[in-house]
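User: Hey, quick favor. My workstation is busy. Could you predict this chain's structure for me?
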Amino acid sequence: MKKIFGLLLTLVLLNACSSHSSKSVNTDDETMEQITVKYATGFTVRDSADVRLVDVGKHDHFALVHDASATVPEGYVKVKVPIERTICMTSLQLSNFTILDAHDIVKGITSTKNLFNQDIKTRVKDGRIVKIGMEGEFDPEVVMAANPDVIFISPSKRGGYDAIKEIGITLVPHLGYKELDPLGQAEWIKFIGMFIGKEKEAADIFAGIEKRYNELKAKTEKVEHRPMVTSGEMHYGNWHAVGGKNYLAQIFRDAGADYVINDDETSGEDLEFEKMYAMSANADYWRILNSYQGDFSYEALKASEPRNEMLKAFKEKKVIYCNMKQTPYYEIAPVKPDVLLKDFVAIFHPELVEQDYQPTFYHLLR
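Assistant: No problem, here it is.
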């Protein structure tokens, strides 16, 4: 009987250390708030007596400690937290710091092109944030001057990280862009929260996002008619279409619609017009996101590709549009999937939102 009890106790303890949840850890008289990862697949968290182990993807492993003298497992890069200075490489990363009210920690960015956030612009102008150059063309001297504790990188970009590695700065991959679940992408605010000492704030903010998203999603599950949606447009001879596993396709489904390539197993691909037309000709709605100088119109859409007028959504004026030159899409949308969802629900099923709802990102093109 004692052996059975001992075995059960062991199983319970092992289960408590699962990679998707973490209990509070006391380190150097400080406490790391509990972290629970529910939707994100790109990082996992495990806590031991005095170290928080964070695995990012398959190849990057970090040990977060409050005490710099703490011993960490082999294969883990030690990072003393909370960090005080960092550099962001993408708008998605920057959105995490914005929603956590942590611009003070950001000391460098790649560019201010298409940047809307006035606080960041002011900090760049007065020198509190420096521009380190674009991917592949970083200025190592500017990076060193920013003196970051870590740099959050995006492995999907053009790279140029070797020069930074030689400086000896810890590079931390941020894989939020790979998440296929809208809530999974937003949950990366918890990842940043662990590094900057705002775990509780991140958890509270995400809980609100999750609640609003799931409550609205539950309403759309009862709709009788689910319109068909297509997405993307022609560029340089190809139509870049998000795949059936893309997070945007998931938002369409959660908003009570069906995506024209729901059965596709990829996150995105480039298709010839004829192939995309075969799937999209009778779609009820057509979603477009681009950077257009001025006010986009059906005339501009036709001018870019005359065959566009053949689509049902074009003929019936049901193009759903967002202009990135007029809307801070990538600065905000990654941490506001609930708002993005509501924009689409307001179009597909307006009876499910308040009558005076004003969209944040997407609207029907007039």
